[in-house]
Write a structure and sequence with these properties.
It contains 6 helices and 3 strands, in the order ααααβαββα. InterPro entries: Cation_antiport_E.
């Protein structure tokens, strides 16, 4: 379904001779609105929910990376700042190596944090934080990413009865 969305958006942008960033964005919005109007006709409720949650997650995560970049700059450039680095062991909500890998990559992309190791048998992930006043502070930040990521990834699998043709009726 994502392929269809991409194909429609790029096709609409090309047809409008607007293959510039704003034109492509406008085409994506137009296709999204069209799909939103045809949600029941096409049976794409789950797809659109995942698309919405994924877009929300991406914008939120970019904001978190920006915020963390400012924090790291404050630590590096500050004269009287004494960072307190720490390694925190944290049990993940889901014991899945693929999820742990994705979460670890997102943590490593965030300035000031790095995923060091994951132990699948115990579900523990070891995380290095550049400035950790307490382990709870580090865990709260990781839990925020974990919660939003799980909400996005599980959106297509939650609830949702089908009508026998595989179409979502919720």
């Amino acid at each position: 379904m994502l392929g269809l969305h991409l194909l429609l958006a790029v096709g609409l942008a090309a047809y409008a001779d607007a293959l510039r960033p704003l034109g492509v964005f406008a085409a994506f919005v137009a296709v999204y609105l069209a799909l939103r109007l045809a949600i029941d006709l096409l049976g794409i409720r789950r797809y659109l929910r995942r698309l919405e949650l994924g877009t929300t997650f991406a914008f939120w995560f970019v904001g978190e990376v920006f915020r963390a970049s400012v924090d790291v700059a404050r630590i590096v450039l500050g004269r009287e700042v004494a960072p307190q680095p720490a390694v925190v062991a944290m049990r993940l909500a889901r014991r899945d190596e693929r999820f742990a890998t994705l979460l670890g990559c997102l943590l490593t992309l965030t300035p000031g944090t790095m995923a060091l190791d994951y132990r699948p048998e115990s579900g523990l992930m070891y995380i290095h934080a550049l400035d950790a006043r307490t382990a709870a502070e580090v865990e709260a930040g990781v839990r925020a990413i974990e919660r939003r990521l799980l909400r996005w990834l599980d959106a297509g699998a939650q609830g949702g009865a089908t009508d026998g043709t595989g179409r979502d009726t919720t």
